[in-house]
Amino acid sequence: MIALWIGLACLAGLALVFLAWPLRTYLVLERRLAAEASEDQRVQANVGLFKTKLAQLDAAYEGGDLDEENYRSQRRELENNLLDDAGEQKTQLAPAFKFSQAQVRLLGIAAISLLASAALYQKYGAAEPLNVYFGRQAVIEESGGDFNQLVARLEQAVRDNPDQAQGWYLLARSYMSLQRFEQAALALEELMRLEGRKPGILAQQAQAWYFVDQRQLTPRVQTLIDEALAQDVHQAAARGLLGIHAFDQGRYQLAIEHWQKALLSVQDQENEQAIREGIAEAQARLGIQAPAEPQTEMAKTPAVNAPELTVAVEIAAELKAQTHPEDTVFVFARALEGPPMPLAAVKLTVADLPTQITLDNSQAMMPARNLSSVQEVVLSARVAKGGSPQAQSGDLQASFGPVAVTHKELISLEINQVVP
Fold first, then answer.
1. Which 8-state DSSP code applies to residue 369?
2. Full DSSP string of 107-130
3. Cα diameter, the chain
4. Roughly how many angstroms between the first and final C-alpha of the chain, as a whole number?
5. How far apart are CA 245 and CA 119, in angstroms?
6. pTM tops 0.85, yes or no
7. Strands of 309-315's sheet in order across
8. What is a single cellular component term in the Gene Ontology annotation (predicted)?
9. Tens digit of each residue's pLDDT (9 = 90 or more) over 300-343
10. What is the distance between the alpha carbons of residues 193 and 205, in angstroms, rounded to a whole number?
């Protein structure tokens, strides 16, 4: 943490230099210009005095009061005095720099600004999360890789700071890793106290109670799952848990359906791979030949007359600035009537766009509900800012349709609308 403050102080000092140096230069230049103006006045006065004395000297010489030798001598003396005075003034044009009252005030304001910034950051900024982060790093180093010791230190950290959500989250994850499921569920309860009943937290607590209850969908587990799915029907952890339970009971088709829905909202590649492996295992137990991945052109042998819709997806130029390369993009084909479940779905990222994809029966959420089961569909593409298949305010989207599933020409989907 000390290193952070040193770095911030260095940056603040650099900013102060950029602020103070131009003003210092301006003040020096202003002083120089004032000195030059004063010198001009003095030079003009000296020249005027020189001309007056020279006129008097000329008059005395012409009147016969001075002989030529004295006249020339006194005139030379007047000229030398004028030149000497001008040279003396030039040496005074660059006075030594001294702090003026304005500059002292500038330094005072800068110091007060830095202190005020530090105080405001300490009160309203990210100081507390940074303290937690650096504290956690110190705990890891001091524990020497002993996970139980790390958990003990995390427990002490949340006792000392019970309103820090990040601490409860880390503690719950640690308990789950150690299979201390009841303690994990209680830690997640504290996290909900601070963060609210978000679907992800609800689903994680459902997982913890599921293992406490001997892998049974008890009422408390089912209640948590229902609450999570009410907010996000494809919530990955909740759907994953339902898939595990169905698989344990030998209901492999139901497990596949839950896991296929989970794929639409899973956030990380590792979990996505685990879900795909679970689907493949369930398909194998059902005697279903899982499609090769990736699918080669030679292996691609669709059934005769099976629908295939070719779709070009891109983002309108005026909306690209509102996206990030890692944002999730969903492309759906839905029936005009009936359940809203997609008949075909593909998950991409903004980095993949623009691209061209093919929607077919292999991308159905349920084998019985695919493109072949309807005559017309509505196509949609959406940039999901929160990663959820459910449309949320601020998402970007496009739609096209209705279109016949037998349509053979390229369909263009330009994402050019913002979900209100």
1. B
2. HHHHHHHHHHHHHHHHHHSSHHHH
3. 139
4. 42
5. 52
6. no
7. 355-359, 309-315, 411-415
8. cell envelope
9. 444 557 899 999 999 999 999 999 999 999 998 988 765 567 88
10. 13
